[in-house]
Amino acid sequence: MGLFTRRNQNANVQDGAAVATLAVDPALAALTGDYVIDPAHSSIGFTVRHAMVTNVRGAFTEHEGTLHLDGADPARSTASIDVKIASVDTGIADRDGHLRSGDFFDAETFPLMTFRSTEARQLGGDAYRITGELTIKDVTRPLSIDLEFNGSATDPYGNERVGFEGSTEILRSDWGLTWNAALEAGGVMVSDKVKLTFDISAIKQA
Fold first, then answer.
1. What is the pTM of this model?
2. 6, 89, 97, 99: least buried by Cβ within 10 Å?
């Protein structure tokens, strides 16, 4: 059963008119509230094709964000994430330095990548889609992310947690990330298409 599933529908009469009311599962309604993303147990990663033949994977290791979940009305749920560009990590120091440079992210001038949600909706079951605005290098464009709700739990320290994972694909050129190099055999060094992945654990605030 999904995070925002409503279970029963009843009809009440008020001022001579039938008014539909929806009963919300108490366990799901209890998840409603404000959450802070736990960066120690979350990851924001990416995959991009390199030299036309293999994939390079990396992550942004420093990020912070907040969620507001509404167990009665998913459309009222929101998300906000700030990612520190300088934290990019592909496992190769020279490559990471190139990504931070003006050829790509220009981390010194544009230190943050941000996402601010504008819409959330349930696709069915535990599947959701959150739409918002992604900003990279002062370029803001719409982005939709498909997410799966992984459940909720209380950790050994008494924190109430929820978990989501999901992914989306972008064209990096849409955000001004256009650097490339031609290959002798044809094609280019770095694909325009980039897959973004999200594995989020968030802690409910008192």
1. 0.85
2. 97
Cβ atoms 16, 9 nearer than 8 A: no
Q: How many CB atoms are located within 10 Å of the residue 128 CB?
A: 22
Measured between alpha carbons, how far is 19 from 175 in angstroms, rounded to an integer? 47
DSSP states along 61-96: --EEEEEEE-SS-GGG-EEEEEEEGGGEE-S-HHHH
**Length of the chain, in residues:** 206
Closest alpha carbon to 51 in 174, 183, 178: 183
Q: What is the pLDDT of residue 74?
A: 81
Quick one: residue 61, left, alpha or beta (phi over 0 = left, psi -120 to 50 = alpha)?
alpha
Question: Is residue 52 within 8 Å of 36, Cβ to Cβ?
Answer: no
Mean pLDDT calculated for residue range 129-142? 97
Q: What is the dihedral of CA 176, 177, 182, 183, to 10 degrees?
A: -150
Average pLDDT over residues 159-174: 97
The three-state secondary structure class of 41 is helix
Structure tokens belonging to residue 61: 């290791």
